[in-house]
Amino acid sequence: MNDSGSAVKKLMDLYQITDPKKLIVVSDDINTLPGALAIQDGGDLKSLAGQKGQENIATSLGTTNFIRFRLGVGKPPSGSTMTIPQWVLGPFGQENKEMDLFAWLMGHTTQALLEYVQTNDLKQCRKKFARSRKIPSGLTPTDSLIYPVLIEGM
């Protein structure tokens, strides 16, 4: 994922997409609270805040002028010896309902993406889906984050 820029560039070239605003990058984000969705548009490389995959995409495209949906995973607990890569690549803990929260966030993000592609109104989408809020109560217990994905036209 950290080296995804060349693949994104090849896909944009293949489909003759020249406007980076047509690109939506969805990724995890340690600088966003767990369960929160941040939606960004443009900015400089510093605005990518160490998200290596997004930095690589920006470098490959020569611009940060694309849409970013950042799914909050938070940082390792204070006092933890866990590194950032261990944190983001490690399994979700069941005891803290991390998997339940992330499953909810994936559904929430899907709704936000659908709204954005239907309305093309990023400001409204951000207002509706990216505001800070408390962790939702009554999370559905989730045993797995494996979702079926249908890819057509490739």
From TrEMBL:
SUPFAM superfamilies listed in its UniProt record = Peptidyl-tRNA hydrolase-like
Q: Does the keyword tRNA-binding apply?
A: yes
Q: Which Gene3D superfamilies match?
A: Peptidyl-tRNA hydrolase (3.40.50.1470)
* Coiled coil start-end: none
Molecular functions per Gene Ontology: peptidyl-tRNA hydrolase activity; tRNA binding
Q: Does the keyword Lyase apply?
A: no
Domain of life, source organism: Eukaryota
Alphabetically ordered keywords of this record: Hydrolase, RNA-binding, tRNA-binding
Please identify the protein, giving its name as recorded: Uncharacterized protein
Source organism per entry reads Modicella reniformis
What is this organism's lineage? Eukaryota, Fungi, Fungi incertae sedis, Mucoromycota, Mortierellomycotina
